[in-house]
Amino acid sequence: MIRKLKKEILISIKNRKINVFFLFLILAFVILIFTKLSKEYTKTITFEINKINVPQENVVLNDSTAKLKVTLKTHGFKWLSYYLYPPKITIDFSKDVTKSKSAFIWDKSKAYIYSEKQFGSKVQLLNISPDTLIFKYDVNLVKKIPIVLNTDISFTSGFDITGDYKLKPDSIVVVGPEIIASKVISIQTEKLTLKDVKSNISSTVKLKLPKKNKDLKFSVNEVQVFGTVEKYTEGTLKIPVSVVNVPENMTLNYFPKEVIVAYYTSLKDFKAITAEDFVVECDFSAIENEQTYLIPKLTKTSKLVKSAKVNQQRIEFIILE
Questions:
Q1: Which domains does the chain have, with CATH numbers?
Q2: What would the pLDDT profile of 243-302 be if each residue is shown by its tens digit?
Q3: How do beta strands 251-255 and 217-218 pair?
Q4: Is 73 in a helix, a strand, or coil?
């Protein structure tokens, strides 16, 4: 029992020694880091550009080369912050640049004037490259363009859309450089996919906005889509056939004198459809070579009908002497 107790005491002492060792090791490492970070270093680092107060009537074209290589002398803590958070130099377009016919020009002398504000009092600015930055600009164009709906919608048998889909809004305002914005003539939506629809449609769909042209701004990024869905049915009617553009000195006899027109309409409008809503004509002047038949075509259709077709494909005719 006594031996066991001695053994546990020795193990505990050894563990404490190990813990103390690691504690001193960590403290030594921390002191070393602080010593290193407290020293001053001279290095060159790339700064991004932060543009502010750009005139509203102008848009500065994005340029990936618009960066500055800045040589600074400062302590390690400051350098650590630069590595953790990408540094930026702010260029105020209301006072830091001069304007030409096609570009804003920035001179590095401005950075030296405002070096303490830009970099801090404990940072020594040694050099900036390049000496100047040129920001090309364009006049902003504001225009309204239509939105094009992209769909993949199927309906339950006996149901269909009545009229057109309605978009809210049905157009979008684009603002940007005239050279770029003038080429945008419409904006498509992402594909709206709906299956087995049998009730009114009310959905929100995203727009396919250009991702490459960051100089363009758009008024909305999504639209609402509405559609009235009703029960539909098919119907047929006998419609008289007439022949047009027959020469005055010619008499024709043709058969049949009536054709069946099949139409597709909503159930609520079915009873309102009459034969007077349709006109079927054959154009005699459209006959080619020695063709011995006429082709019937629908020249008038009811506005209440979604689609209609003539079931008869040919009208036989003879020329009477």
A1: 40-130 (no CATH), 140-231 (2.170.120.40), 232-320 (2.170.120.30)
A2: 999 988 888 899 999 999 999 999 999 999 999 999 999 999 998 888 889 999 999 999
A3: unpaired
A4: strand
